[in-house]
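ok trying again, last paste got cut off:
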Amino acid sequence: MSSLSSARLKRSIALHLFLTPLALIWLFPLWMMVVFSTMPDNGIFSPGIELLPHGNFIDNFNNLQHDTDFVGAIVISVCVAVTYTVLSVLLTSMAGWALARYQFFGKSVVVAIILGTITLPYAVVLIPQFIMVARDFKLANTWVALIVPPLFNSLGVLFMRQSFSMMPDDLFDAARVEGVKEWRIFVFIALPLARPMLAALCIILFLASWNNYLWPLLINSQPGSMTAPVALGTLIGLTKVSWGGIMAGAVMLTMPMLVVFVLLQRHFIAGIAAGAVK
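nice, full thing came through this time. structure:
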């Protein structure tokens, strides 16, 4: 038993010695972003390599807030991301449940179409989607345009379909024998069983909405209703770039997401592992 424990300890030490440098390499750009956010605008072009923070973060943030109303943009991004995540998880879960548990004409065709949409580059549908939303529906510069068009997530549908397919049929058949309605089976039995997968999907969708730049840039051009990534992009001008403000805003956008991921990584990993193994 002692030899087995010793072998496990040696493997653990070797694994940590291998992974620690890789982790430091991954964290180094994030650390430099923090350092640059504490330097003046021209500090990023200093000839020397600065590895320690300076004292200009408050000034950079004040300039960022003065130029973009960044706090308001963050509030908009939070509201859009939360609303999008809740609605998209509900929609993809219902679609995945239908594809996993019901038999209907053309089911295989629907699954093939959903798989096909994953292979399409986003640039292919971007302009037609913009024309339809902005010109035909007259929804430009509205929250509906920010939230509704990306709601249907093909990867999320297939992920939830796989999750529901892994659940035992006998459990749902027993509920039907007891006279439980289909919507109650979905809400009170299937969704609680899929909680790890739902947590992973929520993290993925929230981060996708939080980091989304191109679609909000096209559909929402009003200065007072920009999301945070779009507001940061306005600091890049033809003759002046506020590097300090950009780095300060990037820190404010990145750090909360890292904290959320660290706190919820157990659910994320459990959901991904449960959805990938059948």
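cool. Residues 2-37 form the longest helix (36 residues). The mean pLDDT is 85.
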